[in-house]
């Protein structure tokens, strides 16, 4: 890679790495190590194809698409692997929404990977139905129906516990 392209790539990484990590954390349902692996794999794929990425209309959207597809392909390939023995956070967390966040991440972790990806793109990243469909290679109607079903599953998993955690 030429020096100018490498500088451009490094600027992109500095500007977008945190946002990619937040999205990866949601996709990984709170597994910080998996989120780091997803971001690292995404950034390495972007580096290899940086000339194409830099020429895209929106390198940020391109990176988000690579992240989601990396997550989905990893979930398909990962028939065996590490299994956590408990759901322990990496460090101490505090704040009014800690219990709410952990409850939501636990519920997301119980969804299939594609449902999680649809919810991330539609509601976390606030992408349009058409953009989500294009990123996941689905039809718009499939995104709508899958999103509706996924939200229904999250609501069923949370039951009344969510209302107890939301401050009034």
TrEMBL record:
Key words, A-Z: DNA-binding, Sigma factor, Transcription, Transcription regulation
Superkingdom field: Bacteria
Ranges for domain RNA polymerase sigma factor 70 region 4 type: 103-152
Keyword match Zinc-finger: no
Domain RNA polymerase sigma-70 region stretches: 16-79
One Pfam family this sequence matches: Sigma70_r2
InterPro entries: RNA_pol_sigma-70-like, RNA_pol_sigma-70_dom, RNA_pol_sigma-E_actinobac, RNA_pol_sigma70_r2, RNA_pol_sigma70_r4_t2, RNA_pol_sigma_r2, RNA_pol_sigma_r3/r4-like, WH-like_DNA-bd_sf
Family recorded in the similarity comment: Belongs to the sigma-70 factor family. ECF subfamily.
This protein's name: SigE family RNA polymerase sigma factor
């Amino acid at each position: 890679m030429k020096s100018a392209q490498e500088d451009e790539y490094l600027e992109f990484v500095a500007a977008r790495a945190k946002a990619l990590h937040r999205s990866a954390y949601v996709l990984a349902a709170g597994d910080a190590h998996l989120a780091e692996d997803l971001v690292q794999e995404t950034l390495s794929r972007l580096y290899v194809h940086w000339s194409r990425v830099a020429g895209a209309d929106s390198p940020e959207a391109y990176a988000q698409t690579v992240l989601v597809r990396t997550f989905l392909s990893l979930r398909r390939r990962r028939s065996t692997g590490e299994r956590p023995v408990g759901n322990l956070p990496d460090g101490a967390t505090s704040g009014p929404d800690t219990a709410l966040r952990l409850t939501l991440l636990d519920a997301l972790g119980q969804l299939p990977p594609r449902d999680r990806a649809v919810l991330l793109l539609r509601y976390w990243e606030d992408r349009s139905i058409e953009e989500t469909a294009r990123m996941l290679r689905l039809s718009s109607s499939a995104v709508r129906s899958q999103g509706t079903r996924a939200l229904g599953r999250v609501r069923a998993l949370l039951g009344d516990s969510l209302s107890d955690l939301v401050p009034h």
